[in-house]
Amino acid sequence: HAKANGRGRAEHFTEELADLIADRAQLESDLREALEQNQFTLVFQPQVAVWGGEIVAAEALLRWRHPRDGMRLPGTFIQRAEETGLIVEIGEWVIATVAETIARWGRIGIEQRLAINVSPRQLDHANFFRRLRAAMLAANAPARLLELEITETLAMHCSSEVIEAITLLRADGASIAIDDFGTGYSNLARLRDLPVDRVKLDRSLVEHIVENAEARTIAHAVVGLIHGIGCEAVAEGIETEAQAEVLRVIGCDVIQGYAIAAPMDEDAFIAWSRCEDRQQATG
Ligand code: C2E
Ligand code: MG
Ligand code: MG
Ligand code: MG
């Protein structure tokens, strides 16, 4: 009896494994198709000054208009794209699209710094920085309107070649942000030596700053540390005005999150930023 049960479980397990492998293969071929059929799109989320509220930048976030599932978030496909190396091609699409967007917005009077997220596999790729530069030149987009977001963990493991390339890019005027700060393990001395302009406090660091005094103390110390290495502090995932108020008090520079605006498609972002201009002009 027990033996039969055991075999049943093993068969069940084998079936699940087969399903999993099939799902992964399907996702990979769907991702290839998405590239060919232009199913990717970008949405934009504003980052605003904690005092005054003017837009200082927007983060470009990847979306997949999936033919069957509707709009899919990066959490459902980025990891697979990394594993298969498809992230390199997807990343190139993101870079070209952001360069074109910067130029297009420039032509209608919106001088907006755009931040893109960069994956480890992309940075490993020897041609990454050359392609990035070529895309910006081809679109006639100034480098000073480009920011690269590199996760804390990735930043800690950059090769000296990558650091050199980043240094050159910054000399052109682009800026570098450390993303998801507080989720990895940073060597603070190394952080100080990296060519970085901004550090983004991960949502987990700011989630409880309103109701929890210790969380507030930690966030305050982290902001002090970021300023101490000569960087600007950006808090992400701000969902309430109360959080924004605490961040004002502890000296954070820039905030991003649903409390200000969710990520928007291009038209909505342009409308939103114009409406903000109007508010500042009148109030
Ligand atoms: P991230 O770079 O840390 O981006 C912030 C994420 O938080 C975004 O999720 C954003 O929509 C979400 N978010 C913004 N405000 C709030 C808020 O107030 N509350 C909460 N709970 N969430 C908020 P999204 O768009 O699903 O992206 C997830 C991650 O996928 C990003 O995290 C980034 O690591 C990655 N990603 C996004 N676009 C790209 C891309 O073009 N290339 C690469 N390599 N990775 C990307
Ligand atoms: Mg990011
Ligand atoms: Mg982040
Ligand atoms: Mg994050």
UniProtKB/TrEMBL annotation:
Q: Where is the EAL domain?
A: 24-277
**Record keywords, A-Z:** Coiled coil
**What residue ranges carry the coiled-coil annotation?**
10-37
At the top level, the lineage of the source is: Bacteria
Q: What name has this protein been given in UniProt?
A: EAL domain-containing protein
Q: To which species is this protein native? A: Sphingomonas oligophenolica
Q: Which residues of the full protein are shown?
A: 276 to 558 of 558
